[in-house]
Amino acid sequence: MSRRAVIAGIGATEFSKQSGRSELQLACEAVLHALADAGLEPSDVDGLVTFVNDSNPEIEVARSTGIGELTFFTRVGYGGGAACGTVQQAMLAIEHGVADVVVCYRAFNERSGVRFGLGHADRPMAAGADRAGYSWLTPFGLNTPAQEVAIFARRYMHEFGATSEDFGRVAVVDRAYAANNPKAWFYGRPITLAEHQESRWIAEPLHLLDCCQESDGGQAIVVAAQDRVAGLRHRPVRILGAAQGSGADQHLMTSYYRPQISGIPEMGLVARQLYAQSGLGPQDIDAAVIYDHFTPLVLPQLEELGFCGRGEAPAFIADGNLEIGGRLPTNTHGGQLGEAYLHGMNGIAEAVRLVRGTSVNQPEGVEAVIVTSGTAVPTSGLILGVDA
After folding, report:
1. Is 56 exposed, middle or buried (0-12, 13-18, 19+ CB in 10 A)?
2. Looking at the domain assignment, is residue 108 inside a domain?
3. Hey, which residues does 221 pair with through a beta bridge?
């Protein structure tokens, strides 16, 4: 990589449970906020990237925001696994001269509209491979993401002696960060481990407070060629690594047929690429944004990324390593458990703030941040760093 592409701007709507606006309006607001943050105009944009399951067509976003001709537009699949992949696609387009300014966006009314947490049991059958696959799951009670993740969580507990309290410590850390973040839904509302344990069951061993939020909102990221953003008010954030990964025998949320199901091999694949591209290793990473749709899947991510060995994540977290002053301050915005669930796009924005030094929970000396996308599906990741 020539590293010609940098992140120049970030922008978001408010995060809520009832936006009162269309998803298209949320997308457009986020895009315009991100361009303003970058000091660019809509007319500067020549590329757009979003998620396969985003309801806002690129041409409608372009028309509604004043963006003119587009030379690059694409979408990335697999839900939350797409987040960092959108930035990778934008970076590749810029690296190869296909576009100069690409905006990545994601917007939805996921709380007031279609709620992903309700699962797929009541969705109509179709003649596609996805629905055929679900037909082997739903009769046995695997209808929602929480139920699907519960099987991974139970296996991890069985293999390594982890407990529900080990998962709960992730939620406690996230909510502590969110309590200091005025943009977080749970601003001013930390939790204790006892409160986590007392929250109701969703799908054992997952409590309510193990599960991410359902949110309305939009988030956009501006990726631009370095020479297009010289002299603007924010120093550009370098994309030191960007990768996607799908593991062997990959399923959507239900990769139960591998020899070992307590790890996330696709995240290990992403990690190896990120470290090879950046020339960095786990020891060089100063902070992290770990995809936290469900707390149990944070633990194997830390292991796949090389911050601790297999089965060692419970102790790593219990030792305070995810907190400010710890080895790896993680999800300093509050994560999807504490700030908002935007399919991980708000996590990328927080990584940008960490490199800029503007997080509301800013650790000292941050020069490299690792970001992960959705787990239990084909996924993606980034390493963002300071401008050399």
Report:
1. buried
2. yes
3. 10, 104
Residue 78 lies in a domain: yes
The two structure tokens encoding residue 388: 């050399």
For residue 151, give the 3-state DSSP assignment.
helix
118-147 pLDDT, tens digit each: 877 666 767 788 778 778 888 888 889 999
In a domain, 165, yes or no: no
pTM: 0.97
Give the Cα separation of 368 and 351 in Å (integer).
9
- Residues contacting residue 166 through CB under 8 Å, at least 6 positions apart: 299, 313, 314, 317, 318
Catalytic residues: 291, 341
CATH of the domain at 295: 3.40.47.10
Q: In 10 A of CB 200, how many CB atoms?
A: 7
> Is the bond leading into 205 cis (omega within 30 degrees of zero)?
yes
Which residues span the domain enclosing 280? 5-113+213-385
Taking the C-alpha atoms of residue 167 and residue 145, their distance in angstroms, rounded to an integer, is 17
Contact 294, 149 (CB under 8 A): yes
* Distance separating the N- and C-terminal Cα atoms of the chain: 14
Instruction: Residue 296: name the closest of 145, 194, 184, 80 by CA.
Output: 145
- pLDDT bin (cut points 50, 70, 90) of residue 388 is low
DSSP state of 138: G
Q: What total of structural domains would you count in the chain?
A: 1
**CA–CA dist 319, 48 (Å, integer):** 42
Please list, in sequence order, all residues whose beta carbon lies within 8 angstroms of the beta carbon of residue 374, skipping any fewer than 6 positions away. 78, 79, 80, 81, 82, 83, 291, 293, 343, 344
Q: What are phi and psi of 86, to 5 degrees?
A: -65, -40
Task: Please list the residues that pair with 8 across neighbouring strands.
Answer: none
Report d(CA 278, CA 62) in Å as an integer: 33
User: What confidence score (pLDDT) does residue 352 get?
Assistant: 98
Token couple for 220:
């956009």
pLDDT given for residue 232 in this prediction: 78
The dihedral formed by the CA atoms of 261, 267, 272 and 277, expressed in degrees to the nearest 10:
170
Residue 159 falls within a domain, yes or no?
no
Q: What are 372's strand-pairing partners?
A: 381
pLDDT at 219 over 60: yes
DSSP secondary-structure letter at 236? P
